[in-house]
Specification:
The chain is α+β, with helices and mostly antiparallel strands. The chain is built from eight helices and 15 strands. A hairpin with a 2-residue loop joins strand 14 and strand 15. Helix 6 runs parallel beside helix 7. The longest helix has 25 residues. The radius of gyration is 17 Å and the shape is globular.
């Protein structure tokens, strides 16, 4: 079943990604608010994802960033962010992706991420590993560097962005982690960087009050790529090995 889900997820995000790549080249129409930015491309890309999921699984519920919840009584619920990295997209920065994840009572079952400008396609299935453009990958595939030379991604959710107190907490976490490693990336398109983590291009990831649409995809990519995980409450840390993860975890917890 998960293979069928993965095929539909990959087809859906590729359709959205192909559209986004074309729109990225031809021009944008962004609508800026005090705290966010949206484009017509968000809605059209999401329509393409939902259309393909519904065609394959008309009874599956869908939770989509732009259009909200779509009812259904199927075994799996789809979590969709058809344009992760809208700020980058609107600013002309080519770091953005499209993601669709099928979840059940046990958590994320399969996810697919398409990074249009690079034409990268990541697919992860529960207990089935991760592929990048059809080739199996793992978090240990990259160069094994000491933590002092490591690059670490971060993910925060709207609950942090809209709360001065939580933003202060995250700033403290990021500063503490940065004292341990070479670089901390404050990701504006987290699923893109989770893909890089899954094939060893990043060394770790720190998540603080993450939104579901990005976290379910990131969790599955990291776990199936063999990352070590530490989590408590709203804080989750992934690393390519036990020692790196433990040191990142300690740095993050000590800051809170």
């Amino acid at each position: 079943m998960t293979d069928d889900l993965a095929a539909v997820a990959a087809d859906a995000v590729t359709a959205a990604g192909d559209y986004l790549a074309e729109r990225f080249e031809t021009g944008l129409d962004a609508d800026y608010t005090a705290t966010d930015v949206k484009t017509a491309a968000d809605h059209e890309a999401e329509r393409r994802v939902i259309e393909r999921v519904r065609a394959a699984y008309p009874d599956h519920p869908i939770t989509a960033e732009e259009s909200g919840h779509h009812d259904g009584d199927g075994q799996y619920r789809w979590v969709v962010d058809a344009l992760d990295g809208t700020n980058n997209f609107a600013a002309g920065v080519p770091t953005f992706g499209s993601v669709a994840t099928a979840v059940d009572e046990a958590g994320p079952a399969t996810t697919a991420v398409h990074v249009p400008v690079l034409d990268d396609l990541y697919v992860a299935t529960r207990d089935g590993g991760v592929t990048h453009n059809g080739t199996e990958v793992a978090a240990t595939d990259g160069d094994s560097v000491p933590l002092s030379h490591a690059t670490v991604g971060t993910l925060i959710g709207p609950d942090v962005i809209h709360s001065e107190a939580r933003m202060d907490e995250f700033d403290a976490v990021a500063d503490s982690v940065e004292t341990e490693c070479k670089r901390v990336i404050r990701c504006w398109a987290p699923v893109v960087y989770f893909g890089l983590l899954a094939r060893g291009r990043l060394d770790g990831f720190v998540c603080f009050h993450p939104p579901e649409r990005e976290q379910v995809a990131g969790d599955l990519l990291a776990r199936e790529a063999g990352c070590v995980e530490r989590t408590a409450g709203a804080l989750t840390v992934f690393g390519r090995d036990e020692d790196l993860t433990e040191r990142l975890w300690t740095a993050a917890v000590d800051a809170l």
